[in-house]
């Protein structure tokens, strides 16, 4: 039976995703499933999908709940200085999973966020996930441009609010917003900010946003613990691919070792041939005959 006091611990809080593409978001999977359960969004927009972990986590939770939901996943699928740059294979991987497992719920929208903004009407989205470029100006631009798509009572998520190095600036925007809105934040998993838009009517969300510090710490601790299991599963899922890369790297190293061994053998052969030529020269008749001349050359004074 669910603990009525621990409102954040529902069956969905213990769910784990099906897909584990490499992601810095994996420890937030339990909270994502809980949020889909309590908010029951009809429309989700994600700014920054990359390899699809958060998108598929949202979609999987809705599918298991039998809840109809459309998630619009927006990305350039080119990468940036924080996520790194990559080729078409990432988009193809995301598209393959979306078409196979979530054909009715995941919509991929490729392009710059500013170009895609006209596709969404104001107050048409229940959940907005901002996880694009992570500089302060970038995050602020995304928030200003997309805030109006979220309906009253909706939620906005901000990832990486705890990252302060390498030009990350979402934390600055978050510090400004949490002074003006009802919010909740997680410190683990690079930080995840949860912001209420307008008047939140869902009881579980009201309790989340109004939690006292003791309750907030319990919520954070529980979701961090649950997220750690998702992280372990993610790492286990990645092991076969890591092993494949390790074997490939080992094979490449073996090829290099074999090449160096051949080079060393060629050098040894060259040295041996040189030594043999010197030995043949020194044992030759002409070498013995000219020995006195060489000796005289060594003792004669030099002319300046």
Structure explained in plain terms:
The longest helix is centred in the last third of the chain and has 70 residues, at 213-282. The chain has one domain (11-237): Vaccinia Virus protein VP39 (Rossmann fold), CATH 3.40.50. The chain contains ten helices and nine strands. The protein has a seven-stranded mixed beta sheet, sandwiched between helices. α1 crosses α2. The chain has 304 residues and is an alpha/beta fold.
Number of self-contained structural domains? 1
What summary fits the major beta sheet?
7 strands, mixed
Q: Output the radius of gyration.
A: 32 Å
Number of helices: 10
Question: What is the distance, rounded to the nearest whole angstrom, between the alpha carbons of the first and last residues?
Answer: 106 Å
Order of helices and strands: HEHEEEHEHEHEHEEHHHH
Q: Summarize model confidence as the mean pLDDT.
A: 87
The CATH architecture category equals: 3-Layer(aba) Sandwich
Sheet/helix structural class: alpha/beta
Instruction: Report the uncertain regions.
Output: none
Assigned CATH class: Alpha Beta
How would you write the strand order of the largest sheet?
A: 5-2-1-6-7-9-8
Fold-level CATH name: Rossmann fold
What is the percentage of strand-forming residues? 5-15%
Report the principal-axis shape. Answer: elongated
Write the CATH homologous superfamily.
Answer: Vaccinia Virus protein VP39
Total strands: the figure is 9
């Amino acid at each position: 039976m669910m603990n009525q006091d621990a409102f954040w611990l529902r069956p969905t809080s213990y769910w784990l995703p099906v897909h584990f593409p490499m992601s810095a978001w994996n420890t937030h999977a339990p909270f994502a499933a809980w949020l889909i359960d309590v908010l029951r969004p009809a429309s989700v927009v994600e700014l920054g999908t990359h390899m699809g972990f958060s998108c598929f986590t949202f979609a999987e939770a809705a599918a298991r709940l039998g809840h109809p939901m459309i998630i619009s996943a927006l990305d350039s699928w080119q990468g940036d200085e924080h996520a790194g740059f990559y080729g078409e294979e990432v988009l193809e991987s995301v598209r393959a999973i979306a078409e196979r497992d979530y054909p009715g719920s995941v919509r991929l929208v490729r392009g710059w966020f500013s170009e895609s903004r006209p596709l969404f009407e104001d107050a048409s989205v229940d959940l907005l996930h901002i996880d694009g470029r992570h500089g302060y100006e970038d995050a602020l631009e995304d928030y200003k441009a997309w805030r109006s798509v979220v309906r009253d009572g909706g939620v906005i998520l901000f990832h990486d609010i705890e990252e302060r190095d390498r030009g990350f600036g979402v934390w600055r925007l978050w510090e400004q917003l949490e002074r003006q809105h009802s919010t909740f934040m997680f410190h683990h998993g690079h930080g995840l900010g949860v912001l209420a838009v307008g008047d939140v009517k869902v009881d579980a969300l009201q309790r989340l946003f109004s939690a006292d510090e003791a309750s907030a710490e319990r919520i954070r601790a529980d979701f961090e613990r649950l997220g750690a299991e998702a992280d372990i599963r993610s790492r286990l899922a990645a092991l076969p691919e890591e092993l494949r890369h390790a074997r490939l790297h080992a094979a490449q190293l073996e090829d290099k070792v074999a090449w160096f061994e051949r080079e060393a053998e060629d050098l040894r052969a060259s040295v041996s041939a040189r030594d043999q030529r010197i030995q043949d020269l020194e044992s030759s008749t002409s070498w013995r005959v000219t020995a006195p001349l060489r000796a005289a050359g060594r003792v004669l004074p030099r002319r300046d």
